[in-house]
Amino acid sequence: MTRIELPPRPRILVVVLRRLGDVLLATPLMRSLRRAWPEAWIEALTFAGTEGILSGNPDLDGVVTMPARPSAAQSLALVRRLWRRYDLAISTQPGDRPITFAILAGRQRVAPVAQGSIGSLMRGMLTRSVPVAQGLHRVAEVLQLADALGIAPIAEIACPTGGSEAARPGAPYAVVHANPMFRYKQWTAEGWRALARALERRGLAVVATGGPSPADRHYLDEIWTGFASVRRLDGALTWPDLAALIGGAHVYVGPDTSVTHLAAATGCPTLALFGPTDPRLWGPWPACGLAAPWDASGAIQRRGNVWVVQNPLQCLPCQLEGCERRIDSFSRCLDEMPVATVLRALDAALGMPSVRAEPAIMGTARV
């Protein structure tokens, strides 16, 4: 497609109204824009609370935030602030709200659009559009918008920068991030404790990270109480500090969460424990790029600096919110994930031979 025409030093807005991981996985589009228009003023529109993962992003000149559930007055104020302020506005997702903000903000507008009558209406108000992709990784999906703009897609995730390295231990260490946002993505407390013991036997100090919410703290208390040797930093780090900490680790281990995507992008050897989520769509993007797509399932898969670890039951990946179809549900594939499988991936990531004597502890299955 021919390159879209913009004035000298254009103003560009990238609309990403999703969760933290989605915001991070949209940074390759921001990098593509910066490479194409190095003199541009580029901003992102995000939900308040997700902007931290863009801290220090060299491809952005600013971030505009909005509440996830704005009042009428807040919405009107945002519209007034954005109205035709940009030469180009790009929504990274389909949906009425993000596309509407792109239409209101940009003199030229680009977005993915779904099929149907609403999609046809939206396409009529856009300068260019792409069909909603099926079966593409989120990074590849976002980079379709670079193709629509007629610019080179740059498949590089930009980590938050400017963080302090003060939290790094003086000895070799591993970072363990045990708590995802939702219950259905959790591994077992027994599994995390067995992993911590295994890391210490391999000569690594264990640094545990996590979110600041009371629910996060409660779950992490359940896991780490009695582990005096585990250094807990849950709720204590900014996104740039977290990136700096993980970037110096010998290995990172975490579930399907935004921090795991960040770990992969830092280049740290990263173990991602996946349950219902399809890695073909949401597997962590390695620092060197994803040369070959992730498979739907397999006990251990490696791409670059990332190992995706699964318990490949026949129903995997279901792409559902756990076995009970709600965010606080258990997931049998994770509750029954053997520690032995995780430790085989760990030893591969550490460049060590597998230790077969490790106990194969797993959580109790609930059916």
Query: What is the assigned CATH homologous superfamily of the largest domain?
Result: Glycogen Phosphorylase B
**Overall body shape:** globular
Cross-sheet strand order for the largest sheet: 9-8-7-10-11-13-12
Assign a percent range to the helix content: 25-40%
CATH class of the largest domain: Alpha Beta
Which CATH architecture of the largest domain is right?
A: 3-Layer(aba) Sandwich
Average pLDDT for all residues: 93
Radius of gyration: 21 Å
- Name the structural class: alpha/beta
Counting DSSP E segments of at least 2 residues, the number of strands comes to 13
Please report which band the strand proportion falls in: under 5%, 5-15%, 15-25%, 25-35%, 35-45% or over 45%. Answer: 15-25%
Low-confidence stretches: 354-367
Q: Output the CATH topology of the largest domain.
A: Rossmann fold
Q: With helices defined by DSSP (H or I, 4 residues minimum), what is the helix count?
A: 13
Spell the H/E element sequence. Answer: EHHEEHEHEHEHEHEHEHEHEHEEHH
Main beta sheet strand tally, sense and closure:
7 strands, mixed
Domains, number: 2
Distance between the termini: 52 Å
Summary, kept brief:
The chain has helices spanning 20-25, 27-36, 72-82, 96-105, 117-124, 138-149, 189-201, 214-224, 239-247, 258-266, 279-282, 332-335, 339-350; strands at residues 11-16, 41-47, 62-66, 86-91, 106-113, 128-131, 173-177, 205-209, 231-232, 251-255, 270-273, 300-303, 306-309.
